[in-house]
Amino acid sequence: MDVDRLRTQEHRFSDHLRKNANRYFDDISENSVSVYLVHRAERHNSQLYEFRLTDRDTSHSVFVKVPFASASVDPGEVTTYSNWDRPRLFPKTDPHLKGLFEYRSLQAIHDHFAQLGDPRFGTIRVLDLLENPYTIIMEKGRDPGFRNFFRKAHRLRPGLLSDRLLNGCRNSGAWLNEFRNLSPPEHCETRHSKAEEVQSILEALIVFALKSGGRRWFSHQFQQRLLVAAESFLPSNLILGMTHTDFAPRNILLGHNGRITVFDSIGHWRAPIYEDLAYFLIRLKVSMPQMMSQGRLFEAATLIKLEKEFLGGYFGHRPIPMAQIRLYECILLLEQWAAMVCRLKASRGVRKIGMRCQVKIGLPYLSHYISRALSEIEA
User: Fold this and answer.
1) Pick from 92, 126, 104: nearest CA to 185
2) CA-CA distance, 339 to 87, in Å (whole number)?
3) Cα dihedral 110/286/275/354 (nearest 10)
4) What is the pLDDT of residue 5?
5) What is the pLDDT of residues 141-182, one digit of tens each?
6) Is the pLDDT reported for residue 73 higher than 80?
7) Residue 317 CB: number of other CB atoms within 10 A?
8) Tell me, what DSSP letter sits at residue 81?
9) What's the sign of the alpha-carbon dihedral 145, 150, 151, 156?
């Protein structure tokens, strides 16, 4: 996106915030408010602006999130691995509708969890939705990111596995258990209610992995073993719930006493509950730093404690379906494998060098983790 377009967009948002500040915040006057751009960041699929609204001694920070799929962006300027054909667990959401879906989802999350009044759960207030393209205006959360605390718990800084992080993991599990029963937004669809649907996707992911270098690391019986595990442990009718689809430490804020606030959900799917559970766990246990260090950065005992707290928060005293969760970890990591391979194919220049290093170092570690998870399922 060129400089002129960015400036035009910035002025549009500044003017809108100035005119509507009093509607968003009761303690701000429309006539004396000042609006400042604090920061602008380009994310994978969006532009994120942070503005500060001030009026005398009062100050509020807001985020404005703009999808790339807009009239002001030439689609040819955005080239990602998503242009490459690869097996996926679920289809990508139409980028032109993603802002609308996320607005509805965040509003539903705020209304539900604010009504609970549970001190373990914070919320982010959604302020407005602009059109052409769909753009979300939301209040900035005050708590730091969950990922910041997690990254401090590595083996080079022993003793930093804080109660705040442990409580955050437990509360993340409890939040997810509450979220799965949320009333679906009007755009929500259901997928993978039957085991055979998941098995079909799993087979496609396995074939892709074996064709893209996996034969070097997986045993010759790997495909059969994983498919047999899916057939043995997935019930014919899967337990469904609202699915976040990106439930990871990067999308969680962690406050005092482990209070967590979750964002970045578009509420597009009702899907098997194991999916979000497994996704959170692999983002803890198979994070990029852990993968690039070949599993040496975080001690196994630390990761086991965090997993135990998270699953305890979700299931309470109910039995934990570990075989199904581990199976979904394998599925999600095979999808990550496919994504890494396609990113490498689509990348250019210096980025291609970095992606080549990630693939060369990361794929052997992914294969090791998947094989270990499969052995655990079989045991």
Assistant:
1) 104
2) 9
3) 80
4) 79
5) 999 999 999 998 888 776 567 899 999 999 999 999 999 999
6) no
7) 5
8) G
9) positive
Distance CA 165, CA 254 (A): 8
Amino acid identity, position 182: L
Please report the pLDDT score of residue 1 as a whole number.
Answer: 54
Q: Read off the tokens for 227.
A: 């498919």
| Tokens of residue 236, six digits | 């014919």
Q: Is 42 exposed, middle or buried (0-12, 13-18, 19+ CB in 10 A)?
A: exposed
Q: Are 86 and 338 in contact (CB under 8 A)?
A: yes
% helix, strand, coil for the chain, step of 5: 55, 15, 30
* pTM of the entire predicted model: 0.93
Q: Which range in 96-100, 172-176, 350-354, 360-364 is most confidently predicted, on average pLDDT? A: 172-176
Question: What is residue 158's predicted lDDT score, i.e. its pLDDT?
Answer: 61
Task: Count CB-CB contacts under 10 A for residue 244.
Answer: 26
Q: What does the alpha-carbon distance between residue 172 and residue 161 come to, in Å, rounded to a whole number?
A: 16
Tokens representing 167? 């409580």
Spatial distance between the Cα atoms of 199 and 230, rounded to a whole number of angstroms: 7
User: What is the arrangement of strands in the sheet containing 189-190, beginning at the earlier edge strand?
Assistant: 189-190, 269-272, 240-243
3-state secondary structure of 250: helix
What integer pLDDT is reported at residue 71 of this predicted model? 41
